[in-house]
Amino acid sequence: MSFLLACPECGERSAYEFRFGGEVKSRPQQGDSEEAWFQYIYTKTNEAGEQEEWWFHRNGCRKWFQALRDTRTNTVIATWYPE
Amino acid sequence: MDIRFNGKAIPIQEGDTVASALYRAGQRIFTRSFKYHRPRGLLCCSGHCPNCLMNVDGIPNVRTCITPARAGMAVKHQNARPSLDFDYLAIAQQFDWMMPVGWYYKNFTNPRMWHLAEAQIRKVAGLGDPPPPDAPEAVYEHAHMQAGVAVIGAGPAGLNAAREAASQGERVVVVDDQPRTTPGDSSYTLLSRSYCFGLYEGNLLGVLQSEPHSGARERLVHIRAKRIVVATGAYEAPLTFKNNDLPGIMLSTAVWRLIHRHGIQPGTSAVIISNETGDSAIAAELRNVGIAVVATVPPSDVLEATGSKHVTGLRTRRGAFACDLVVMCGHRIPDAGLLSQAGAKLEWSAEAGAFVPTELPPNITAVGDVAHALVRAASTLVSMPNKRTFVCFCNDVTSQDICDSVAEGFDHIELLKRYTTTTMGPCQGRMCQLQAIGICARETGRAIQETGVTTSRPPNPGVTLGALGGARHHPIRRTPMHYQHEELGAVWMDMGDWKRPRYYKSAQTERESILREYHAVRQAVGVIDVSTLGKLSLKGRDSGKLLDKVYTNRFSDLKPGRVRYAVLCDEAGIILDDGTISRPLADARGYNTGDPGGTRSVAPSVSAGTIDDFFITTTTGNLDFVEQWLEWWLAGAGWDVQINNLTSALAAVNLAGPKAREVLSALTSCGLSNAEFPYMACRNAEVAGVPALLMRIGFVGETGWEIHYPAESGEHLWSALMDAGRPFGICPFGVEAQRLLRLEKRHVIVGVDTDALTSPYEAGMAWVVKHDKADFIGKFALGKLESAQAQQSLVGFTMNANQIPEDGAAILVNGALAGRVTSARYSPAVEKAIGLAWVTAGAAAEGAQIEIRVAGAPVRATVTQRVFYDPDGARLRM
């Protein structure tokens, strides 16, 4: 796990500088089904391929951002701040 | 100038390695083999094979053939008793029929037998001993480098590539495993005696540099390169025939090195095994130094080597030859491990008689022999099964073993590797891989390409644990009052990186000291340094909205000047952290200073003067997490909230006890009466001239104030409190007294009394969950948990007899396991041992009898839901 990640603020840095924050998921609304909440809280897609993820630049600007990463090759295709 | 070998002085010459000095002094047996304790001598002389591993200056498994000899080095042999020359464990060879590959899997199916045997096997097999715990500690370090181009290997091809890249203006680093022999070229940086053990994602190279300077044994260099040139060359691998492991049988490259690098004549009469017809280059080399070349035979004609501790002859189809040196012109194999790690494919080339790298990934190139395998008339690859023909020198695996393993069904090369451990020793397959593949292919009737090659993974070659660990850095955080605690006799404890006083030594025993602190707080006044608490200030219009969303209780309605207990849960309803959230009161000038440090500036900043400011405290260990958690929920929300981590900027103390008000009133003009400053209120005020945020809260269960103030005034305010408190018998107290005081109040410590499955309902804190909020983190799960029957709950207990269980002690009900103790102490207030424990729902009723295991025996205890001390909280409001 030594790939490079381009922090939108600081540029390309070693992945060691970052904290992984898991897959990007959309949070259900209160009142949504139990199934929707169950999926949100307990399950992960764990995609073998391109996956949207949260990353936190712990040893840098200390900002959260999102990245599109191919989990098979650890190629980071894009990074951005969530809107 | 000499080194000590097993205590004996061995002279060294300029340019000597440890192995060359020993060889010149007449040493022929360098190691005893892993399993059979067969004598082994120099084989490769280039740091690839396991034959010269020794203990050098206390470090085991040092490749002595590439370790420069330095006067005074202490060198010892490994894995031989009593000596290399006579090793009684060589008897193991007579029992080889008992010990085929995997014999321990087959024989020690009974775990008890295995436990008995394992210790013995460990003693006789293996590769050296780790340094003893009291051995002097070697210094290791880490370094990081950035390069435009990194070249691995300083042979002709590598140096050419380096110069070419440098001439194009690139920043070039060259890594080479040999000692520097040629004068450097200033256009690139050369790391000599450094080997690259891994090529990782993002073009990261792991490089181990030996003795980067006199103060360090090894340095691990992380090189991040835009482009990598692999120029690792090719190495020579041994041939296989019976007794091919005898000392005196060497690779031609080893012979070349001994002659040219070290001026050593490695024998008097030699037989060369080579497919080259006519007079080979190596024959000329031998004759030049006066070695008689008895014969040159092709590998296919070799039957066996003879001799017991050294080769004395070679039996071939062309007759038997007496000799004291056998030169193997072995297979030349591209050293393509790094390329394979980078993702290149290794393809069998019948012409080269080797696997050659193809399909290199972008930004990685191969030059020299590693790219174009030297075509040397491929020798007969494969030997017939024999119990004395060694394929794997590291782990003593013979051609017989490999054939047997294939017959047993381990016929895939990766399975064969794991079962026989061929290619898994110190040489990492350099000496044995091709032979193993060849035998596997023949035995299974498959082609070599189809049989394939096992995966190369870093580290290869191995790396010392010390180098991976690097320098010993233990970051220590000290509070601003650290040295005052030291003067007061603090006995320290570690809490994360922080040093905190566990207690202050004021009496003969620890117990008496802690009780003294306890009684001061209960009867007079005590003060504890709580600077380690996480401290966050929140500013901005949407601060209340954020807090309402992430904390289970409500904060948007918190009145200025009030404090509220706060619990943080995740979406599954699990408690993550707790603390307090206060909303500082706007000061007389209409400014809300927000954080107490804010008044440090000459004039308070106007922008801080809104009512939307909050001040959060978190537990000591969870600050980082909480800060990131809040930032995460803010990311992309577009809310107006600024989070500021003030943990290091602020000192904090908790002044508590019936006399706390009297002490504090001497230092501040802030009204402290119940009417002016009620329980769970907060005020900005000056204390001893220091701007501070005061909160009236009571973790320890007495009237008290938590005071947050600028760190640079840390010592000043502490001294002022101690001075003002002296007439009242003030006593500084440590973490241990605090834990006892809070336990009597049944205040939970997150992470001690709760774990990764604890919801507020099970912890008895249902009141912190405000389900009337439209949404908050964990609402859905907590809704489910509220109505669910809790499997277990956190209860208090008192011991019936006078024994104190340890934290974590097991709880039994009717002899069955029913929970565990999370905290237990002797309570002076109850005059019994008390504690908190998780018990199953059935045992959670008031007055239920449980048994707690103390020192192995069950002791009776009584469950209680009540608070042990001041259950109504009257003392907090005095």
Search tags:
A: 83 residues; mainly beta; Folate-binding fold; four-stranded antiparallel beta sheet; two-stranded antiparallel ribbon; 1 helix; 40% strand; B: 878 residues; alpha+beta; Ubiquitin-like (UB roll); FAD/NAD(P)-binding domain; six-stranded mixed beta sheet
Concise structural overview:
The complex is a heterodimer of chains A (83) and B (878). Chain A is 11% helix and 40% strand.
Explain what you see.
The complex is a heterodimer of chains A (83) and B (878). Helices cover 11% and strands 40% of the residues of chain A. Chain A contains one helix and six strands, in the order βββαβββ. Chain B is α+β, with helices and mostly antiparallel strands and 878 residues long. Chain B is 20% helix and 29% strand. In chain B, α14 packs across α19 (735-744). Classes of the chains: A mainly beta (83), B alpha+beta (878). The A-B interface holds A 1-4, 14-15, 19, 21, 28-30, 34, 37, 40-42, 54, 56, 58, 62-65, 74, 81-83 and B 200-202, 204, 224, 571-572, 628, 631-632, 635-636, 774-775, 779-781, 784.
Strand elements of chain B, count:
46
CATH architecture of chain A: 2-Layer Sandwich
What is the CATH first-level class name of one domain in chain B? Alpha Beta
Q: What coarse outline of chain A follows from CA principal-axis ratios?
A: globular
The end-to-end span of chain B amounts to: 82 Å
The neighbouring-strand order within the major sheet of chain A is: 3-4-5-6
Q: What is the CATH superfamily label of one domain in chain B? A: 2Fe-2S iron-sulphur cluster binding domain, sarcosine oxidase, alpha subunit, N-terminal domain
Question: Main beta sheet of chain B, described?
Answer: 7 strands, mixed
Radius of gyration of chain A: 14 Å
What topology does this entry show?
The complex is a heterodimer of chains A (83) and B (878).
Chain A: E1 4-7, E2 11-14, E3 19-23, H1 34-42, E4 50-56, E5 64-70, E6 75-80
Antiparallel strand pairs in A: 1-2, 3-4, 4-5, 5-6
Chain B: E1 2-5, E2 8-11, H1 18-24, E3 31-32, E4 39-40, E5 53-56, E6 59-63, E7 74-76, H2 103-107, H3 111-124, E8 140-152, H4 156-167, E9 172-175, E10 189-191, E11 194-200, E12 204-213, E13 216-230, E14 234-237, E15 249-251, H5 252-260, E16 269-273, H6 281-288, E17 292-297, E18 302-306, E19 313-316, E20 319-322, E21 325-328, E22 331-334, H7 337-342, E23 345-349, E24 354-358, E25 364-366, E26 390-392, E27 397-398, H8 399-407, H9 413-420, H10 433-444, H11 448-451, H12 465-469, H13 482-487, E28 490-495, E29 498-504, H14 510-523, E30 526-529, E31 534-539, H15 543-550, E32 562-569, E33 575-583, E34 614-618, H16 623-634, E35 642-645, E36 650-656, H17 660-665, E37 682-687, E38 690-695, E39 704-710, H18 714-725, E40 731-732, H19 735-744, H20 779-787, E41 792-799, E42 810-813, E43 816-827, E44 832-840, E45 849-854, E46 857-864
Parallel strand pairs in B: 1-7, 8-9, 8-13, 9-10, 13-25, 15-21, 16-17, 16-21, 30-40
Antiparallel strand pairs in B: 1-2, 3-4, 5-6, 5-7, 11-12, 12-13, 14-22, 18-19, 19-20, 23-24, 26-27, 28-29, 30-36, 31-34, 31-35, 32-33, 33-34, 36-39, 37-38, 38-39, 41-44, 41-46, 42-43, 42-45, 43-44, 45-46
